[in-house]
Amino acid sequence: MSVRSSIAVLAVLALVGLLVYGLVQKGSSRVAVGEQAPSASLPRLEGGGDGSLAQYKGRWVLVNFWASWCIPCKQEAPTLEEFQQQHGGTKFTVLGIDTRDLTDDGRSFTQQYGLSYPQLRDGDGSAAHSYGTTGVPENFLVDPNGIVRWETPGPVDEQYLREQVEPFLPQEKS
Amino acid sequence: MKAASRTVGLVIAMATLLLAFAPSASAAAPRASLIEIEKEVMCPVCGTLLQLAESPQAMREKAFVRQLIAEGKTGAQVKDALVAEYGDAVLALPKGSGFSLSAYVVPIVAFIVAAIALAFGVMRWRRAGSGGGRGGRGPAGPKGEDADRLDADLARYDL
Predict the structure, then answer these.
(1) Which of A46, A109, B127, B132 has its C-alpha lying 20 to 30 A from B157's C-alpha?
(2) Exposed, middle or buried, B83 (CB in 10 Å: 0-12/13-18/19+)?
């Protein structure tokens, strides 16, 4: 192969590579049950510093993506807080991830609904993207080894949590 | 009395001069405008310009921009605050630094490379074209037997 042909082939490969990279960056596949849950480090919504799902290894975690501007999230928040009060402890926690939201709006939201479970901030939506969410709210139940055991797009209510999530959790609270 | 009125006149003249320069001083740091900023930033949830977005998230983003403008922030400061909240993707145009700079540089480099390649191509084509033919111009004609046959044919048809 001549030098000119090699350059042409390399140029075409580079172009194809760029197109593939663009497609991969744009598209995101939803994390499926049985897969490892992404656990990138994110800033805490309150109190400063960073946090991640990995910090809760050994516990069941209900990862809840939400935003203050999302109306179903407002309906869901008290239910999640109640679930946290009932089951939260050394074996389970709800972990809120405030996505594509203003920091102050997120903080006001947690205060308004008295949310006691930990909250992380995903301002640019990268964490939501890594889970392949298509909106808010969305919930993922992650086991103590970081594997997704259950997930649902859309809000959850008390009955849904009792029927779908509770069976996975250890019987005793702590 | 004359000295006093002269002093008053001087003070008035100085005050007039100060007032005349005041607008140019404030023009040095123009206040941001919502309409201008809306054209330059995105609604991260909708994936469109904020100007075109009507989603609940976009409404909150617009309110945030309005609040910063009311606080006297410049356009650049408002955009920095938006980047702090939503990340670089909130900017409609990539930043002119770091990896984002490639968005501006790559098309220019590609254009220059294409122009150089085209120029070389044209030069080669012209050189190849001028290689044969009479006086170095035009395409090479038939030679030998072909030329004789062509001459005979042309003579036969009286062309």
Answers:
(1) B132
(2) middle
Interface test with B, best of A98, A99, A100, A101 (most B CBs within 10 A): A100
Res. A28 pLDDT band, cuts 50 70 90: low
Structure tokens at A22: 């663009």
- DSSP conformation class of B70: H
Inspect the interface and report whether the beta carbons of B64 and A101 lie closer than 8 Å: no
pLDDT single digits (tens) B46-75: 999 999 999 999 999 999 999 999 999 999
CB contact under 8 A, A69 and B57: yes
Where does B26-93 sit in CATH, by number? 1.10.8
Mean pLDDT taken over chain A:
92
Residue in chain A closest to B65 (alpha carbons) equals A102
CB-CB neighbors (< 8 A) of B88 in chain A: 124
Are the beta carbons of A71 and B45 separated by less than 8 Å? no
- Whether chain A has a CB inside 8 Å of the CB on B86: the answer is yes
Select from B45, B59, B88 the Cβ nearest to the Cβ of A100: B45
Which residues fall within 8 angstroms of residue A134, CB to CB, at 6 or more apart?
A: A30, A153
Alpha carbons A140 and B136: distance in angstroms, whole number: 78
pTM: 0.71
Burial annotation A50-73 (CB, 10 A radius, 16+ → b, else e): ebebeebeebbbbbbbbbbbbeeb
